[in-house]
């Protein structure tokens, strides 16, 4: 029994494996009668780093200097405003009286053995809708059955670099690079390496835009 206990202690029996470092982002967009409501957050290594409420995104952790962050905030506000304007335009052409909830969950993980995993998942009203296959930068339908909205959104998202190559680069290179820097940091880390984090929010907005276009256009049978 003593030998068994000693062996188990050496192998770490009963102990949790070291958790991976992670950057994750959640974004929810509720679309109803031509209006859009945004909410989301991002966390780095288990700590809340960014918070999105409406058109206002705040930096919870002081990852960027105030002047740089001010420009980043403006970029996010611009993209979200553009999204809202297009939703209003679509709703005039194809009125929808019920609320649609669009969501995205994206990020990357760095495991203790050096391996990584990046992901991007999109939901519609709480049901899996699309998944971004990071290795070959392609979108895959997850919606049950042959839904025209999912088919249209998949086709639209595959047309643009921002929702294919740029998104792949963010998840595979930028995001993972931030985690590698986080895992090997000594002393005070430069805030510069964290600067691209919020780009995930912007890229996420482009993906949600493809979904919104599909919902409005396919409702009228024009997709």
The helix/strand order is HEEEEHEEEEHHH
Tally of individual helices: 5
The rough form would be described as globular
Distance between the termini: 69 Å
Radius of gyration, whole Å: 20 Å
Strand content: 25-35%
Helix content: 25-40%
Model regions low in confidence, pLDDT < 50 over at least 5 residues: 1-16, 186-195
How many strands, what sense, and barrel or not for the largest sheet? 8 strands, antiparallel
Describe the strand arrangement of the main beta sheet, using strand numbers.
4-3-2-1-5-6-7-8
Class by helix and strand content? alpha+beta
Question: What's the number of extended β-strand segments?
Answer: 8
What average pLDDT do the residues reach? 75
Q: Quick summary of this structure?
A:
With 223 residues, the chain is α+β, with helices and mostly antiparallel strands.
What distinguishing features does this structure have?
single chain; alpha+beta; 8-stranded antiparallel sheet; 5 helices; globular
Note down, in words, how this protein is organized.
Helix 2 runs parallel beside helix 5 and helix 3 crosses helix 5. The protein contains 5 helices and 8 strands; from the N terminus they run αββββαββββααα. It has an 8-stranded antiparallel β-sheet with strand order 4-3-2-1-5-6-7-8, covered by helices on one side. It is α+β, with helices and mostly antiparallel strands and about 220 residues long. It is about 40% helix and about 30% strand.
């Amino acid at each position: 029994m003593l030998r068994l206990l000693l062996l188990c202690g050496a192998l770490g029996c009963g102990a949790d494996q070291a958790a991976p470092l992670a950057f994750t982002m959640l974004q929810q967009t509720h679309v109803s009668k031509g209006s859009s409501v945004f909410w989301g957050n991002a966390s780095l290594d288990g700590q809340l780093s960014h918070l999105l409420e409406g058109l206002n995104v705040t930096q919870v952790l002081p990852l960027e200097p105030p002047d740089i962050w001010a420009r980043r905030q403006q970029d996010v506000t611009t993209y979200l405003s553009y999204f809202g304007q297009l939703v209003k335009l679509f709703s005039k052409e194809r009125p929808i009286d019920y609320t649609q909830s669009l969501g995205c969950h994206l990020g990357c993980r760095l495991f203790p053995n050096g391996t990584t995993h990046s992901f991007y998942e999109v939901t519609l009203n709480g049901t899996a809708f699309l998944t971004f296959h990071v290795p070959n930068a392609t979108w895959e339908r997850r919606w049950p059955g042959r839904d025209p909205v999912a088919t249209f959104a998949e086709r639209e998202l595959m047309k643009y670099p921002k929702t294919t190559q740029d998104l792949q680069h963010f998840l595979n290179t930028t995001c993972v690079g931030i985690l590698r820097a986080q895992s090997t940091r000594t002393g005070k880390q430069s805030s510069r390496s964290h600067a691209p984090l919020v780009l995930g929010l912007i890229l996420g907005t482009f993906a949600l835009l493809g979904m919104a276009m599909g919902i409005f256009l396919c409702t009228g049978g024009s997709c």
